[in-house]
TrEMBL record:
Example of a GO MF term: hydrolase activity, hydrolyzing O-glycosyl compounds
GO BP, one annotated term: polysaccharide catabolic process
Domain Dockerin per the UniProt entry, residue ranges: 251-321
SUPFAM superfamilies per UniProt: Calcium-dependent phosphotriesterase, Type I dockerin domain
CDD domains the UniProt entry points to: Dockerin_I (cd14256)
Stated name of the protein: Dockerin type I repeat protein
Source organism phylogeny: Bacteria, Bacillati, Bacillota, Clostridia, Eubacteriales
Superkingdom in the source lineage: Bacteria
Segments crossing the lipid bilayer: none
Signal peptide start and end residues: none
Length: 324
């Protein structure tokens, strides 16, 4: 499943007969779903047994298959629905798309030791590829995720590698986390990431230096971790086997700290003033906007600035938003 510009792309195999790879390829499709109406908008025919799909740059879709010995990666144009290119990867692969570098990182899993491979793409064409050279230096697992800024590969073995445009700097060892994980979620606003380490345990790390900050726990056994809209959530399984959706942690907003430096002072007045005057140098992000709404009425206005000034002048000791 992939998402881009209010469209959700879901792949399916339409030809259930083709259990084996055929020269002409099995019949599959990409269903394009409009996320606003939740209706099926279009279908794109694909000749591949789909395993994963990525929405890449400039409207190209990359569909991967996962077959022993002969896996293909295909690309399609979203606008014309045309088949663009195909790459034989020769091994069963698990892969992730790096949106910053416009390339696919894959781990061929049927050859040992496990190693990373890169496929560079350019407007739907597979242009080049190369492999890393770890051999057996690191105990890699087949599952991995790329950080939202495209800078790191987080292998579920706990080993972190770099992603870099430059071949010599790419897929280099960066860090080893103290525990392997089953899933990972990123909170880039607060420079944090969370790993599900088995059972109901979650480790919280600092994204800048990979240091451990905290541990959290869920009620059920975690199947998947998400970070959405300032909330850490988990899809988990309860003791009696039922799936549950849990909110593990919400971001604690420090009201008044508009520039997110941890302090509430005249700099925050400057930021809020700049924002209210529509000065582009003071564009506030999602967190900044929440922190600026010190009266907690749901919008940022000059009234919030008045409260902030009064707080800094110690005329008030707290913000209305903290009492809500
Ligand atoms: Ca501040
Ligand atoms: Ca307000």
């Amino acid at each position: 499943m992939a998402y881009l510009d209010n469209e959700l792309f879901v792949t399916a195999l339409t030809d259930s007969q083709s259990l084996y790879w055929l020269p002409e390829g099995p019949n599959g499709m990409i269903a394009v779903i409009d996320t606003k109406t939740v209706e099926l908008k279009e279908k794109i025919d694909i000749k591949i047994r789909p395993f994963n799909i990525f929405a890449g740059k400039n409207g190209y879709l990359y569909v991967t298959s996962r077959e022993p010995q002969k896996a293909y990666f295909n690309s399609y144009s979203r606008s014309t629905k045309e088949f663009m290119d195909s790459e034989l990867v020769n091994n069963e692969c698990l892969s992730e798309y790096n949106p910053t570098l416009d390339r696919i990182y894959a781990i061929p899993i049927d050859i040992m030791p496990i190693d990373y491979k890169v496929l560079n793409v350019d407007n739907g064409k597979f242009v080049s590829s190369y492999s890393s050279t770890y051999y057996d230096s690191y105990p890699l697992a087949e599952k991995f995720k790329i950080s939202p800024d495209g800078k790191y590969l987080f292998n579920s073995s706990g080993v972190v590698f770099t992603c870099n445009e430059n071949v010599n700097e790419d897929m280099k060892f960066a860090f080893t986390l103290d525990k392997k994980f089953t899933d990972i979620a990123f909170n880039m606003e607060e420079n944090r990431f969370y790993t599900a380490v088995g059972g109901n345990q979650i480790y919280v790390y600092n994204y800048e230096d990979f240091s451990g900050i905290d541990t959290l726990s869920s009620t059920g056994e975690i199947l998947k971790l998400f970070y959405v809209d300032g909330k850490l959530c988990a899809l988990s399984r309860s003791a009696n086997g039922r799936p549950m959706f849990e909110v593990i942690q919400k971001v604690k907003i420090k009201y008044g700290d508009v520039n997110k430096d941890g302090r509430i002072n005249s700099t925050d007045i400057m930021y809020l003033k700049g924002y209210l005057l529509r000065n582009s140098a003071f564009n506030l992000d999602e967190y900044g906007l929440m922190a600026a709404d010190v009266d907690g009425n749901g919008s940022v206005s000059s009234l919030d600035l008045t409260y902030l000034k009064r707080y800094i002048l110690r005329r008030i000791s707290d913000f209305p938003a903290n009492k809500k």
